[in-house]
Prior knowledge:
By secondary structure, the protein is an alpha+beta fold. It folds into 2 domains: 2-206, YmcC-like fold; 213-246. 23% of the residues lie in helices and 39% in strands. The protein has 4 helices and 12 strands, in the order H-E-H-E-E-E-E-E-E-E-E-E-E-E-H-H. The strands form 2 sheets. The protein has a 10-stranded antiparallel beta sheet. A two-stranded antiparallel sheet has the order 6-7. The radius of gyration is 28 Å and the shape is globular. It starts with a helix and ends in an 11-residue tail after the last helix. The relative contact order is 0.16.
Amino acid sequence: MLIRKLKAIIALACIISVVLAATARATDYNVGVTLGQWVKYGNFIGTGTAVSSLFNQSDWMKLEVTAISGKNVTLHMSGQYKNGTSAEETGSKCNIETGWMNTSTTMGTYGYGYVIAKDLQANDLLPMPTASMKVNETETRTYLGVSRTVAIVNITASVPEMMSIKYVTIYDQASGMLLELDYMMSYTMMISTSFHIGFSVTDTNIFGGTTAAGNWLQDNAMYIAVGVTVIVVVIAGAAFMMRRKKAPATQTSTKKT
């Protein structure tokens, strides 16, 4: 029952988004991620009767790009609960040009996209099998101490005495990977329910994060080596000069005749 209800809710949200996407311009859809890139999520928020208890027990979730073929991107999902137990690992394949997604997650078949095309601008469509969303705006935000241009999808809609939805997803513009999600819904048709879920990036090797720091060291290894060599030479030279300056004067002995 819960799964069918969620499918109906998300499908209705997609239908509403068709109207919002009517002014979208023609767009070229190109893959921005590369093999081996990953994003780790945390800061999970989950309230409401429709939210699974497992969601609130989540500690982190990680998405890694494991294959790229044309417009198709394959992702591997792993995670861990707060008690240290590993979450069930899953995989999905999505087409960034059509929005088609083959996934084991319920929401995935309705356009719950973790990755979109790169370099999308305001009013660009985000195609899905049943409908299309659009990018509302782009702006610069700071993640993990790094300024990034992001593409924001913001759907706010309501049907009086039936339902209200606020669906916000924020994507890294250069790679197309999801950085934040915030989804609130109130549903009053036949059975009243509501929920609020959200999460955001906590680490990544696309920018910032642990791996990015390692890449910086690798990319600048020559300059670091030269700098260290200069410092060593300067210190050694200074030490030599100090030793010469402090060396005791040589004493000469004299004999009495």
